[in-house]
Amino acid sequence: MKFNRFEMFTRITFLDRFKIDDIPWLKFSAKSENAKFFSNENKFVFWKVLKWLFEEVIISLLRCFFYCTEKQKEYSRIFYYRKAIWALVMKMSIEDLQKDNLKAVEKKEMNSHCENNNFAPGKLRLIPKGDTFRPIMTFNRKIPHTKNMTTNKKL
Length: 155
Description:
about 160 residues, alpha+beta, two-stranded antiparallel ribbon, 6 helices, 4 strands, about 50% helix, elongated
């Protein structure tokens, strides 16, 4: 079923919870012959303002001051760590990983190894797991000198 942009936004129950007529800059005369059109247009404008507010302002502020991540076995919840605390956690976790599993490599050595074997470097990410952290490596960066080939695709 296809909807035009106005029908689509009138079907969203989230917007119906707001009383758009109580917002002074969205108020219009309900006696107008085009009242339904203006009502739908105002809902669309309000939706765009809310979308901008969340995507550009709130999320940007959160990213400036917090590291946001999920926790293992709690997939639908987001956990917020202050950047300074997360940096300390990362430092301590990487030190533990270097003792047990990982080996520190100089950047020059890593670059030459990646170029010689035609791989892109991986990225380490930590997921909180109880009182420890689970390391996850992602290999979705593009391999140098190729168009869309990643290490994941190559493997």
